[in-house]
Write a structure and sequence with these properties.
About 40% of the residues lie in helices and about 20% in strands. By secondary structure, it is of the alpha/beta class.
Length: about 475
């Protein structure tokens, strides 16, 4: 399927051979070339935006129940092709095949969730000071959306934007990451299969600095929906030449607090899952852990043992592996840099610390899940987003100290707590300055609840009804009534 999608753009309901330079896409587990994509030329970006603008006129006027049916068809098509789409994702991104399939199924879930929300776009009537006037507050779709998506979750992070936008009545031009473009192009194939009208969904490939920036600067784009680094998010905010609505889901440096009352086994299990799943390449990955001093040694020992037991493999060869290859050399090198910094400043290596042994790992971007303890806030692992399979652990002596350490960051996307004492839970949950706080679990984001960050972790929300509202404008219609004729 990758061969069929190579060097193609999806514009106005049709596949077009891209005119721009060819960009290689590699398998991160083997280093082998998968295929090339075409960098969309400026004229092709213009075509995609024009197609979306034209389609908006009819799509936005379509009865919500018809948009709902279209999204249900899309969800059904994606579900039917989950195995094939998962294989594409594993080949270009590196996560194990079973995990990739789970992500595809979550994409299908997003389609069905927003299909149901599409028919629940409500307005209201606001009382006025006199009885002859009504104020109607209605919601209308914003227009054309430019979606710029990352490589770590190449299906879900397209889907959150695509499904919410379409449910609201918007049309969309998607620019996927150049590391993982074929998953997005496979989604375009499902759009075609679901018979979603031409121009409603368009996909252009290429670099963020050129193709993504062209969408940011395009006068025909009404909203930018971006997931990625805080630095790029800030650049987008600064570089919009016209006023646009923005949804920016950016980076974080997510903390976990483990109190003395916590279920230690559950805390270790949660820490391993959220620190190392997808090789730590998650915006809400646990980067740093603060543990009550009386249980710190026991926690660190168990965490190290659990990390060492994780199975790492080529996700195609071992579909049920715990972790696969990292997506590219860039996050791998950053992980190594943060580890070296921590060890140089006195941290103790507990688990991992290098590439796994064996010929199967020599050509890919592999690194063992790594735990360091005895950390301080002088270390990068505790103060910067690593975005790799590395977590630092530090002991604390009181809840006030734990909160101060956890909030000592410019970011505010997600935080985690393990505790059994309800007073501790209430105290911590109310003081952690994060958009998402998960207590005794590590699923900070679920489809039916709003998901968004604070501070430098972004603006706007995805997931839930709130995710769809990000694609709607409010309109106030104030009507004065007279006496009816012939009364």
């Amino acid at each position: 399927m990758i061969t069929e999608l190579a060097e193609k753009l999806f514009i106005d309901g049709a596949w077009k051979a891209g005119e721009g330079a060819r960009i290689p896409v590699e398998n991160p587990a083997t280093g082998e070339l998968l295929a090339h994509i075409a960098a969309a030329a400026p004229a092709e970006v213009d075509l995609a935006v024009a197609a979306a603008r034209k389609a908006f006129k009819s799509w936005s006027r379509l009865a919500p129940v018809e948009r709902s049916k279209a999204l249900h068809r899309l969800g059904d098509a994606i579900f039917a092709e989950a195995d094939a789409m998962a294989r594409i994702m594993t080949l270009e991104q590196g996560k194990p095949l079973n995990e990739a399939r789970g992500e595809i199924l979550k994409l299908a879930e997003a389609c069905h969730f927003y299909a149901e929300e599409a028919v629940r776009i409500h307005g209201e009537i606001v009382a006025n000071t006199t009885t002859d006037i009504d104020s109607l507050v209605v919601r209308e779709p914003i227009g054309v959306v430019g979606a710029i998506t990352p490589w770590n979750y190449p299906a879900e992070l397209v889907g959150w934007k695509l499904c919410a936008a379409l449910a609201a009545g918007c049309t969309i031009v998607i620019k996927p990451a150049e590391l993982t473009p074929f998953t997005a192009l496979a989604i375009a194939s499902m759009v075609e299969r679901a018979k979603i009208p031409a121009g409603v969904v368009n996909i252009v490939t290429g670099s963020g600095s050129k193709v993504g920036q062209a969408l940011v600067e395009h006068p025909g784009v009404d909203k930018i929906a971006f997931t990625g680094s805080s630095a790029v998010g800030l650049h987008i905010q600064r570089s919009c030449p016209t006023i646009k609505r923005l949804s920016l889901e950016l980076g974080c440096n997510c903390p976990l607090i483990v109190t003395a009352s916590a279920d230690l086994d559950a805390a270790v299990k949660g820490a391993v899952r959220r620190s190392f799943r997808n090789m730590g390449q998650i915006c809400i990955a646990i980067n740093r852990i603060y543990v009550a001093r009386p249980i710190a040694d026991a926690f660190v020992g168990r965490l190290g043992e659990a990390a060492d037991k994780l199975v790492i493999a080529n996700g195609i060869d071992r579909p049920d592996a715990d972790v696969g290859a990292m997506a590219s050399a860039e996050p791998l090198n950053k992980t190594k840099e943060h580890l070296a910094d921590a060890l140089a400043k006195g941290a103790k290596l507990i688990a991992g610390g290098g590439a796994p042994e064996g010929d199967a790992f020599t050509r890919g971007h592999f690194f063992r899940p790594t735990v360091v303890a005895g950390c301080t806030h002088d270390m990068k692992v505790m103060t910067q987003e690593t975005f790799g399979p590395l977590v630092g652990v530090m002991a604390f002596d009181g809840l006030d100290e734990a909160v101060e350490l956890a909030n000592d960051t410019p970011f505010g996307l997600a935080s985690y707590v393990y505790a059994k004492d309800m007073d501790e839970i209430r105290y911590l949950a109310s003081r952690l300055d994060y958009g998402n706080v998960a207590v005794n679990n590590v699923d900070a984001g679920i489809m039916n609840a709003p998901y968004g960050g604070r501070k430098q972790s972004g603006v706007g929300y995805e997931h839930g009804r709130e995710g769809m509202l990000e694609y709607l404008n409010f309109k106030h219609v104030r009507i004065r009534y007279g006496e009816p004729k012939g009364r």
